[in-house]
């Protein structure tokens, strides 16, 4: 061990001794009332105002099951969609002559969207509903999965 | 005893530990109180599961460390931009207090307060790894992993922090007589509370540790 190492060790020992003596600080008197007030305020919120991850596992399961039922209903209803309403591809050849101003582009976009929505109202709603439900099912399943794993002793640490 | 009362007892039991960890890492009284509240709110959400956690104190300490480091990272820009408005020093004058049962003499209290103040005045890039090593008992490797920095850098910063701390302590304490009763030397405090020092506190942490 050279002189520098010895100096470093002395310094580390000094810091360990000096800092090791320091006791815990006293928390401010207001900490406990502040924490308890926040908890009371949190608990006063209704269920739908709380984050999904804070719901208890029963309500999470009910919610995910409900979304599953909606998906099944959506799939069942989709067989009733009239496929004759689906148009052939939109012909954009006429638009080439238009000056490509921002307003024209916006008008075309909105008129196309409006046309699509009028013709495929049910289908679009079904697709949006299915996407939302799939998203919620994924989030819900992950949350429930973690809760179950957590109750069995699984710990996630960075 | 209902769950609220049980939890209130739990908070009273661990409040000093959580607050101390946050205060030493953040060196700011208001921020430390905020982080301590967040830690206990998190604990409340897990309170029914606490039977499954073998060492609750270690869990709380870990959460307090993570929250404090996140806070330093999240608000690093604001720390830099608003450093001139910071009330850091005034706030902290009232932050270093000790529970009666932990301290024996008035001299002890004065000495501990001065050392705590000096630690809090270190720049964040030195203070944070120093606190994690000496107070929280993390190894160099764990600190490097936690802060996302190289092992060499962590060792260097801790070493520099110790040197700076020793220098400051020696300025205040006479090694033969033990404690020097005067409060911290105003000149050094003024030098450390300059705009540059405050900016360093926030921005150096940003530059050094990209968490």
Secondary-structure map:
The complex is a heterodimer of chains A (158) and B (211).
Chain A: H1 3-20, H2 31-44, H3 57-78, H4 102-119, H5 121-151
Chain B: H1 3-26, H2 29-46, H3 56-74, H4 76-81, H5 88-92, H6 106-121, H7 124-134, H8 140-147, H9 151-172, H10 186-192, H11 195-208
Short description:
Chain A is mostly helical and 158 residues long.
Oligomeric form:
heterodimer
User: What average pLDDT do the residues of chain B reach?
Assistant: 77
Task: Specify the number of helices of chain B.
Answer: 11
- Helix content range of chain B: over 70%
Structural class of chain A: mainly alpha
Strand count, sense and barrel status of the largest sheet of chain A are: none
Low confidence ranges of chain A: none
Name the overall outline of chain A: elongated
| Radius of gyration of chain A over all CA atoms, rounded | 31 Å
Number of strands of chain B: 0
Report on the structure:
The complex is a heterodimer of chains A (158) and B (211). Chain A has helices at 3-20, 31-44, 57-78, 102-119, 121-151. Chain A is an all-alpha fold. In chain A, helix 3 (57-78) packs antiparallel against helix 5 (121-151). Chain B contains eleven helices and no strands. In chain B, helix 1 (3-26) runs antiparallel to helix 2 and helix 6 (106-121) packs across helix 9 (151-172). Chain B is globular and about 50 Å long. The interface between A and B is large, with 32 and 44 residues.
Primary descriptors:
heterodimer; A: 158 residues; mainly alpha; 5 helices; 0% strand; B: 211 residues
